[in-house]
Amino acid sequence: MQKRFLKILVWLGLMSVLTVLAMGAWMVIWHGSQSTESLKWLQLLQTMGTFLLPPILCAWLWDSNHQPFRWLHMDKGASWQVFALAVLIMICAIPAINLLADLNSRISLPDSMASIERWMRAMEENAAALTERFLQAGNAGQLLLNIGLMALLPAIAEELSFRGTLQQVLDGDPASRIRTHTAIWVTAFIFSAIHMQFYGFIPRMLMGAMFGYVFVWTGSLWIPILMHFTNNCMAVISYHLLGGAESTNVSGKSIADTIGAGDTWWLGVLSLIVVGILLYLLTSLGPQGYDRRTHKE
Questions:
Q1: DSSP type of residue 249
Q2: In which domain, by residue range, is 96 found?
């Protein structure tokens, strides 16, 4: 227990230091500019400093042979069937995610917490507005840059931090299934909370838990990375193909975000069932799960 606590402190310490350095570098280069280009650079530096580099450095310290990608289970692959099924799961999950997000958005706080609710909704609107600025792409080159910045890099960096590092540190006992489940759900909760978007908290937490279970089942961090990337990439591409802001309905939501919600709620329910079946198939397709003995405390 003490070793796990110290590892988490080391991880958080490196995260804090590198995040401050990333912010400092951005301030020196861009002088706090609020232009879209400047903010994209800020996101790039923050993602690297906060989520990408700390887990690699930690894994290098913690692996007895200083092989960070071995500790992070990035040295293991899977069959093409597993990779294909992982992508299919995320495609089929779109209506389910939309349904859960719609239900989440309907949650209202008591009148005594009205000011907090206004603050949370304002944060949500600001985040959506910034995301829309980032997603603007006038040509194929800009679209590829958006995919790299908003889909590929976050998928790799966040999975390194949450499933690759935090979940593995919390799950240190190869004989305890209870600890494994606890590690997955605690990590998923923190993964969702750190995004600071209350009205997407539930679907993001459930998605994080799904990534965590897939990591345990397959033994390869590349599978949740691919699933995370697929989810992000579909959002970037759908915004581009559907015409961006012009594809929103009267409520201001993208048409792609309404499939499975509202009048099409039944698609969301069907999606949940299909995803459950596909996840069951994934567990029977091969890799035997990661060897937690390498992380035993």
A1: -
A2: 71-295
